[in-house]
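Obj.: predict assembly geometry.
Materials: sequence records (below).
Method: joint structure prediction, all chains together.
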Amino acid sequence: MDLRDFEADNSVSCRLSSPVPDVCRTEDCCLGIDEAGRGPVLGPMVYGICFCPVSRKENLKNLKVADSKTLSEAERENLFLKLDKAKGFVGWALQILSPNTISTSMLQRVKYNLNALSHDAAIGLVQYALDCGVQLKEVFVDTVGPAEKYEEKLSQRFPGVKVTVRPKADSLFPIVSAASICAKVARDHAVKDWKFTEDLGRVDTDYGSGYPNDPKTKSWLLKYLDPVFGYPQFVRFSWSTAQTLLDSKAVPVHWDDDEEDGEKAAARQNNTSVLSYFSRSKPAGNTHTRETHRFFTERRLQSIDTL
Amino acid sequence: MAMNSCVTVVQLGSGTQVHQSEVHLLPCDIEHDGAAQVAEFFTPTVKERKHEKTVSFRGRGLKGQEVTHPQGYTGLVLKEVQKPSSDQEDRVVKVSSVFHNFTYWNLETPPTSDDRVMMSMAWPKLAEMMRAPVED
Amino acid sequence: MTTKKKRSAHTSNDSWVVIAADSALDKTKLDDGDPTFIRLRNPATGAASQYLFSRGDVRLYEVKAFVEDFHSWFIDQTVQRDGRLLYVTPMDPLFLLLPYLQSGAVEGKFQPLQQIVMDEDYPGCTRMLKCTQALDTLQHVADEKVVGSQKFHRYSQEKTMDWLKKKVLNTVSALKKSDISVGGGVKSTTYVRVKQETDVTEEDYLRYAHGLISEYISEDLSKDLHKHLQLPEISSPKEVEPPSKKRKLSDKPVEAGEDYTKFNSADFARKPPKKMTAAQKTLAKVDKTGMKSMSSFFSPKVKQEIK
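Observations (raw structure tokens):
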């Protein structure tokens, strides 16, 4: 799998895809969606779709694709090669959500949570298939959340397509298994060959599974914690594992939308300036204070009595 | 307030070339004074796309813009040479480096001319005019 | 965000980020002595403010700080927590001398400057006696007598008013060349810039410039200057509420200073001054429909008084 497009800038989200088989533009198709790397504190989360004509479902089954989680990394690689060989009737596309995208979205001023992020990635991929002319009739989705609501959301978004959202869909429907293999292979590669944008010299790549409970992952997180910057962009800052470590080992950083400081920020919005505690007009003696001209207040400029 | 601590002398180096600093103004309060691996963690991750600089700090997305100082003005970083041992002594600072522009970073929104710090750049020019002696 | 530590107070600094006029730190002659930050009596507030003398005290600069909450600096490979940006800009030293001249004027006698410029709270003020720009321009604010080799001075209110008026007019022309919004087009923190008014009057400029110059003179002088400029008197002391109260009442972030008072124009329209100045005539003709929205900036109390 060629991840160069993603590696060119692994701080953002990136789409990778196979060519669309001609037959998918003329025949009714089914499409499976699955994700890889939702839980880990490290690396990207990858959303994958795989599609083929409904009439070729049996051929796909014969490739012996199965839920990627039950397979070894080598088996997944192998199956991905098989899927690649079946490109006459199987197509795939991936949305790689970089860990930086995940962090900055989840920690955004207006929070963009992981579910919304996942749903949008899935919807984007289905739309992509439609835009490529794939004759979509059936969509199968694996989910971790409540299936009904998600199914309703997708059905509404894609009228004319029969949407089936099911927990464990990756072991029930070969097209979902195929999608999960594509996603997992991309995630494996991205993590294994992560190109650190930071200038960290040689980075120890023994970060384990990336799951917070993996001791290897834990010790890696401790080893690479920087007291000011926290972590390289490879780490999802929005994960509580990362947050907890930063809270105890890094220097505190405060933003104007922090909850604890939020009251002050709100006060500032109302212009009951927080700056009043810095204010130039500390009553010195009994001089009565005059209001500063708006040229200065608008520019947050003030006289100071000490450097 | 100790009266004598009100004098701070700026020691000017005798003609030696002063180092030029790379300077960023961050949209957060970092409870730290001292060393930081800016060149390792921050600078390499700054992306420039279509006049817009982006980066992230502690997992939060920032958007930045270069700010150039008003003409005739230079950015200076002053550092205390040593803490005075008593209130009676003058404080002494030196020009530890200079900078001719800096990058102003906003949390998530691109900086505009309405940002206070951008607006404050209008001050020196106005100050010059207000200082100018009047004609008889 | 998860649990956040409370913000610790920021203590003292040992480094500062400054934008300074090149002339301030330019050491042309070796015997000039180093530039010096010094605390002097702020002529407007009577409280302490930071100034800078350079070139052997010949030149005076003022220090203003850009202070906005939630900022820190990266300077090369360091963090400076204090996110202030200090501006060192040239200042007319006469402003600092005025209060001393004025207080000396009580006896109405001519005095040598050394006897006038004394301040036990701010011993550094005697440095102003070396400030050539101040000495060369003293005649703008004081009468002078030369007896033998000694010069004697006496504060002149008349001269001072003329000098301040010229200062205001200089400032007006500076404002006209700038893109500083002097009219009702107050910027709000929601970043909605009121369209640059095409109907900014001469009086708007005068008021704004008067407000700026008032940042450098006592409240009494500011009022005298207001009269001297023949700016319509429209605000009664009753309307001047303590800033904190005013801020709480208004939901819009206008730091009006005294400028907002022009929108109380209904007040002076009701009892017009006997003679209208050109500026007032212009103002009377101004289409006030656009100013309606400004009423939202007033506190309810002020609104009642307008009615």
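Conclusions so far: Chain A touches chain C through 52 residues (CB under 8 Å).
To do: check interface contacts against the pulldown list.
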